[in-house]
Structure formats: structure tokens, C-alpha cells
Amino acid sequence: MSTTAHKVATHAAAAAGRRPPSVLREIVYGMSLGLFAGYLWKLHHWSNQRRTREFYSLLDQGKITVVAAEPPPGTDD
């Protein structure tokens, strides 16, 4: 089954001296780009998880606090 778009692309590729488009090659390119983008997204989430675990670990150890420090006496804030 050949569509008009496929015929135009095949004719344009032949006129330029290149191979005609391949549906299988396009599918492989699309899947590769999708997997790469998914991997980058997972790296982002793994980084967020690592930072969250690090924060709660420091909080449990008492090295940091989320309570605001009291202003020094004599300041009117």
C-alpha cells in the first residue's frame, strides 16, 4: 500500500540520489529516540529521589532542621 506522501518522499529521495525512506528504519529511529528520552527522564527522577533521601537522612541525624531560627532579642521583626 503506497500513499501519496510515500510516493512524493520516494521520488524526492531518488532525485537527490539517496535511498528511499524505510518504514522500518523510521520505527527504529523513533523507538531509539523514545528510549533515550525515557532514560533521561528516569535520570532526572533518580536524582530527585537521591536528593530527597539525602535531605531526610540529614534531618534524622539532626545535622539540619526545618524550624526557622528565632530572631535575636531586641530586633523588631
From TrEMBL:
Keyword Iron: no
Subcellular location: Mitochondrion inner membrane
Any one GO cellular component localisation term in the record: mitochondrial inner membrane
Keywords of this entry: Membrane, Mitochondrion, Mitochondrion inner membrane, Transmembrane, Transmembrane helix
Keyword Mitochondrion in record: yes
Main subcellular localisation: mitochondrion
Primary role: This protein is one of the nuclear-coded polypeptide chains of cytochrome c oxidase, the terminal oxidase in mitochondrial electron transport.
Family: Belongs to the cytochrome c oxidase subunit 5C family.
Protein's name according to its UniProt entry: Cytochrome c oxidase subunit 5C
Taxonomic lineage from the root: Eukaryota, Viridiplantae, Streptophyta, Embryophyta, Tracheophyta
